[in-house]
Design brief:
about 190 residues
């Protein structure tokens, strides 16, 4: 007598499950770690360097590529760790995706605005990162710890930007009038 295995009737194998970043094994962690960096490289490759020629970016353009290459994989790992923590973790996972997208697009937005507005946008990015980190800490402690270096870096950059804006803004500016070397007002 032949038996028909009815347990597998109607089920099919999803061909995309191999590259699913939410997999619960080491391959899922690896995919989640690589995807943000790949998106960063593709975005910067397709759209080009966000800094127009002749614009001085301070510490050098290379820093804008090295730091995300360190931060984004950690945040991808955080996303994967959070996604393993149930439905609350899935919410944090999507919040991390939004944060990663914001970090990737930030250079393209910030070069088209004033320095003060760029610092303000960086501050908003910091608020978003701290909010996601606080939510991640409640859901998954390892995800929070993986996020921490990136959140600290954004905070340092924000403070550095505020210092630059304050140094070139009255009354702290070296020169309050164009053409004045000592900061004193010039007669018209």
């Amino acid at each position: 007598m032949a038996f028909i295995d009815t347990a597998h009737i109607g089920t099919h194998h999803n061909p995309f499950s191999l590259v699913d970043p939410n997999r619960s094994d080491i391959l899922g962690a690896a995919i989640s770690t690589v995807l943000p960096v790949a998106a960063f490289i593709i975005c910067h490759g397709a759209l080009g360097d966000p800094v127009p020629a002749g614009v001085h970016v301070g510490a050098g353009g290379w820093l804008g590529f090295v730091v995300p290459a360190i931060i984004l994989p950690l945040w991808g790992l955080s996303r994967w760790q959070a996604s393993q923590a149930g439905s609350e973790g899935q919410t944090v996972s999507w919040m991390l995706v939004a944060l990663i997208a914001a970090v990737i697009t930030y250079p393209y937005i910030s070069v088209h605005v004033s320095l003060l507005m760029a610092v303000f946008l960086n501050f908003l990015l910091l608020v978003l990162a701290v909010g996601v980190a606080m939510r991640a800490q409640k859901v998954c402690q390892p995800a929070f710890l993986s996020m921490l270096p990136g959140v600290i870096w954004i905070g340092v950059v924000c403070l550095f930007g505020l210092a630059i804006v304050a140094a070139w803004s009255p009354p702290f500016a070296l020169s309050s009038q164009p053409g004045s070397s000592d900061g004193s007002p010039t007669a018209a």
